[in-house]
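Sequence and structure are kept together here, with a separate record for every protein. An example record follows, reproduced without changes.
>
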Amino acid sequence: MSAVAFDSLEYAHQLEAVGMPREQAEVVAKGVTRMFIHNFDTLVTRDYLDTRFTEFETRIEVKMDRRFTEMAGGIDRRFAAVDVRFERMQGRFNLVYWMQGLTLACVVVPLLRSFLG
């Protein structure tokens, strides 16, 4: 953080140089000094802003990572449920294939034998 210097005596001399009476220049310089000292604590520096923005960015990244992890977990669960359904369907198709094979063996093959034989 860079140091901020304010010389109230120099400021009073500058006010006198442009024609302000000495007592008035001193009062104005003291008032500006008080105001400067009072508001100095509320000044925002670049380092302060960088720190705050970095903290904010970190919090947002953590929240986003958490949300993406939750979403990925939900998607994984949904795909697992779909996989189970596909396995059931595969089992049903296998049953249909076996039934077709038995139908061919029991019905069509004897018909072909009698026709050819």
About this structure: Residues 1-43 form one domain.
